[in-house]
Amino acid sequence: MDVAVSVKDITKKYSLYKDPWGPIKEVVTRKKLHKDFFALMGVTIEFPKGESIGILGKNGSGKSTLLKIITGITEPTSGKVDVHGSIVFLDVSSGIDSELSGYDNIFMKGTLLGYSKQEMLAKIDDIIEFSELGEFIGQPVKNYSSGMKAKLGFAISVNVDPDILIVDEALAVGDSSFQKKCMEKMNDFKLQGKTIIFVSHDNHAVESFCSKAAWIHQGELITYGDAKFVGSMYAEFMSGRKPIESIQAEIQYEHAIEQVHYGTTEDGFNLQLNGFVRDQQMVDVQGRFQLAIRDNRTGETVMKDLEPASKGFTVSFSETEFPLFFKPGKFNFWLREEMENKKAVEFSIWAGKADIREQQSKGADHFQYQFKVQQNSLELAIENIGKVEQQVNRIWVEDELLHIEGVAFVRGYETKFENDVLMKFYLTDLSSFERCVFPVEVSETEEITENPAYNPQGKVYNFSRFKVVLDMAELEPGRYESHLSYRMANAPHHRFLNLVWASKLNEYPREPYSTETYTADIQTANKYLRLEKTAKS
Amino acid sequence: MFDIYKEMWKRRKMIQALSIQEIKREYAGTLLGFVWGLANPLMRIAVFWFVFSIGARAGGPVDGAPYFAWLAIGMAAWFLLNDGFRLTQKSFRSKRSIIKNTPFPVAILPAVQILFSYYIHLILLAVVFVLTALSLQTVSLYNFQLIYYDFAALMLLLGIGSITAPLVAVSKDFGRFLDTILVFLFWMTPIFWSADNLGRFEWIIKLNPFHYIVQGYRDSFFYDIGFWEQPVYTFYFWVLVFIFFLLGNYLHKRMKPIFLDTL
Known about the structure:
heterodimer; A: seven-stranded antiparallel beta sheet; 9 helices; about 20% helix
């Protein structure tokens, strides 16, 4: 492989002084008065000839410093740079003098790039044509709009025919047709086997244009490789979904879920995952990791250590171990490593080729479980089979007892007797995820049966009223969300679990309930019933 | 030891092209262009002549040379030294936008400014030469010695510029200091007064290498003295230039990584 540019172990240090006299005081007192700022730390990249390589990174990450070192504008504090071929740094504004005319600027910039007047004369027609400036080429550049300046700068840089073209976020200026023209010109470059180094903070541009990409974050090279891979990592980081440590860990290890086996038994849902985690020396390292499953909505997480298996690891979860964790919602799968400082690093485990199998279902009274692989990670979606219609009609407090009264029914499932349905009420603490269960009293009402809007077919939903009484004095302080489970005693034996819907705002207490020791606030702002209890100090 | 000067020699075409660009840039937007490069120094010569000759009644002939011609030739030399000195020390700082954005052999920038000053100087020199030749009604072979003194002046400026430019690029204060020094040098170089007036302290003035150039100009015009006729002084001058070159090369190497970051 021919190398166009190689940088080896480049470090760039800037000394930052608070005091303008700092450098002089430092010489006199021989004390360190500056802060070291590392714009680049030990970056090693080889840019192969004839490829277009993207450099990704957010503003201030050090990517421009790297370019300046490659082009020789700045010298590295340590490390080695090798450049094979002529470089043009396509930065639209550089070397353009606003006092001179566009025409003179072409020669000016040509001179700076090391071309003689004769060489530039040979190119000048192409440059003027490419720049689309027409008769304005004779006007001083100070009269140009910023778009025109950019066009001129770009036209000069691409037409001087360098071996290596470095593009620094230049395409953001100029109108779309000019941008297209620039892209075409750069594609021509690619076809001619020239090297392009393309710097951007936009992963889409890099993914579509470059074959390889490097990602620099806070002066460090996070990863260098296939543009699509690096781009997707970068996008995940930039969207805030993943911290940098997770991505570093993710790149550091090779990991995958290979098999997903799931099913339901009498005891409920269970799940077995098989896969591997290896470090770069291909050694299995599952001992360090736990597998964590997280409820996307609430953030509730359960985790278990990975068990060694004949090939890689295995880990299983069941509803008996984690009651009420696997409920309607969406779940993601993470590898989790505890670091020395007690902080945990998590990253999404790769599941691009996972083999997902449902095993024989023995219990029929369950939810619908669905596994999907999205962007190479595994996602579990749990849904109710069918739908519970529900509403809280009234909430009131009496002697610290909270009364919640409402209706719940499933269309098509008749409830003629009290035993036809079994309901339970749950409160879940939103920070500790501890749960309390409360009995629900089911009683008779004609509210649904007699309402033609709900019951056009004339079915019987007599036992659809529910009532919960909970003692707020006994509740631990905290924020709670509430679930109602609905279980059919007869066929088809479905079970439902829903957040409690409470949209009749006028029927609920408006002021928080307050005693000498605590305040309890019924929150229904987002239509789901929540309860917050705060202790008084 | 002389890396930056080798670089300049290698890029002499680029220096030439850039100095032409510099002239274009300097007079871009003006209608009269380089006429302004002529008008200003001529005006200053006239003012000095008026002040010293008419105002202070001090303008007698100097060793037989008419004061006005003597002053004009001295000033012509001085303007080259003055402009070269002033522009080279700022040569990195004034071109920071180029230095920061374009891969470019920065070492040649002082030479660009010196060549630019020289072009302006040539125009002035031509006018002064014609005026003096007309008023003296003599043209001597010694006039060709100007080529030697111009060369000496350019080398001196290059040496000094290579020292000052990186220092000024690192510290703006140093630039202010040099501006102040330049005013001092202007009065301490015998331009509108004769070094002979100092008597036995003349040697102090002679330490100033600028004096070598100004005096050389006058020798070539009025006194028909060749530079080989004062070998010690010539030797001293070139040793000094040599030291400046060494120091300039060293400072450039030393300061370049710093000013590339701090500019």
